[in-house]
Amino acid sequence: MTWGDTMSSDSRSRTAGSFAPLRQPVFAVLWAATVLGNIGSFMRDVASSWMVTELSASPAAVALIQTAATLPIFLLAIPAGVLSDILDRRRFLIGVQILLAGVSGALLLLSQTGLLTVEYLVALTFLGGIGAALMGPTWQSIVPELVPRADLKNAVALNSLGVNVARALGPAAGGLLLASLGAAAAYGADVLSYVFVIAALIWWKRPPATDTGLSEQFGGAFRAGLRYARSSRELHVVLLRAAVFFLFASSVWALLPLVTRRMLEGSAGFYGVMLGAVGAGAILGAILLPRLRQRLDADGLVLLASLLSAGVMAALATAPPQAVAVLLMLVLGMGWIVALTTLNGVAQAVLPNWVRGRGLAIYLTVFNGAMAGGSLAWGLFAQEVGIPVALLVGGAGLVVVSLLFHRVKLPRGEADLQASNHWPEPLLAAPVAHDRGPVLIQVEYRVRTHDLPAFLHAMRQVGGERRRDGAYAWGVAEHTGEPGRVIEWFMVESWAEHLRQHHRVSNADADLQREVMRFHIGPEKPVVHHYLALDPRSGRPAENGGRGAEVAS
Length: 553
What we know:
Growth Hormone, Chain: A; Alpha-Beta Plaits; 4-stranded antiparallel sheet; about 5% strand; disordered N terminus
């Protein structure tokens, strides 16, 4: 159809804006290469999912493929997110693509020689899952480098669209290759797709990162990411809502190969058509999503996705005609993209740039953990009660938990998380080694006695901010002899980590600090003290022992 005949000028401008990131040559090339790579990956997944049904009749074995693909992401997403924040992302991605190409090459050789077994298939699928775990957070983290900030949301949406274009084309193409030429042809096509991705990454000349002397090491970056996640209530809500949705929604994905083969009596080609219909439905859902957002908030969108997915599960349990099943897959794809886009978008909106890779990795850990655990559980459950009953129970459970957790509202994600850079660097009598620590920071306030309750309420918000930005301990204390003389104290692992704190404070966090300052009545700004740990036995600077060291009062 010709969109220009039916769209208003505003709609046309919105559509043009949606594709604006493609005006950036690097983003356009990497986006196109990634679409080709994802098409190849979906072809490989179709071949593997179908081959396991030929090699084993056990529902648990079939579900184990889904588990093997997603479990590594559950186990490795957080370390991968750390690596994406501290390594050269371009070189890291090239290495991961070579690993994935090797996995598909091994599957090609084994299937061509007739040596492919369930054990080999599960092991290589697990290795491919390791590659996917390493790639996911890194790819998402490079997007802000490729497009202007104004185009970032559209770039994220285009990435989602690209995945679903691949989801629509890859399974169908993989199913046709599988049916006509065998599994080796599908695996070979996947190997070829990696050539384009690796070539595009080599072509991309990423500017060298500026060395500020504050580069994080793996251990410290890992702990900082976990501290942030532990202290961010907004992220907790997103993770909870994602976990309950994907735990129950995983049932349809774990059992779909068996539904196609046993209940619908479909061939490998038809299985590809089913998955292709999911991708087509996802594209349709992405097109409709802007209109849905005008009528529903994030919570309403997730509930809608749950109801659509549950309805599809219930309908599949009746073993409908194949044509009806394809239409159901269109509906499933719509519900799936609505849920994925909504939850991922909220997760991105509540994460500042400095911890985005690690935060998204934690989200991916929860997502894939729920998918991996759910897939295995639903496979075992179906083995005991049958596929139709498992689908009905999964659908009913999805409706129930979605209604229960609908009251746990998703954050709006409207806070300004750009770095404020309002915190001046500490004044030093002499240079301090970056690895010295831990560090005790004290901020002294003067507060009217009757303002203390409101002050402490505001301080609790600041305490959460200090912990998110790097503090592992925080508290507030009042002088025994001077009511209203209050100190805020917090501790960080090292002097370098405290300097990083200065650059991590967002504009929203700065607003929290200004709210506290309303209650300060001193003639000057609050006095800030920095204390570096000493080894009480030697009197020398203490070795950086993180939480193990103590600071005397």
